[in-house]
Amino acid sequence: MKRVVYRTAAARALRRMPVNTARRIMGKVDAYAADPASQANNVKTLKGREGIRLRVGDWRVIMLDGEVLDILDIGPRGGIYD
Question: Where is 61: in which H helix or E strand?
């Protein structure tokens, strides 16, 4: 399992959203860290920007996948790519 690191913007987004939504997002991130193939249908490579995105309902998680899974930002699907 990869180590997961939440950047400041991602941690702030998790604190501001409802607890059940934050738990759901963190669960999906942990599932991806443990086995990337388990979330393969919810992950895409970003275009015009470095990284990948994980889809969790109407929320998007922007992250870098390497030795450490670096969570850059979390937000609603409409505004996260700006």
Answer: strand 59-65
Q: Which long-range contacts (CB under 8 A, 24 or more apart) does 61-70 make?
A: 61/10, 61/25, 61/28, 61/29, 63/29, 65/2, 65/36, 67/2, 67/3, 68/2, 68/3, 68/4, 68/5, 69/2, 69/3, 69/4, 69/5, 69/29, 69/32, 69/33, 70/5, 70/7
With a cut of 80, say whether residue 44 has pLDDT above it. Answer: yes
What pTM was computed for the model? 0.90
Looking up tokens 């109407």 gives 58
In this predicted structure, what is the pLDDT of residue 79? 81
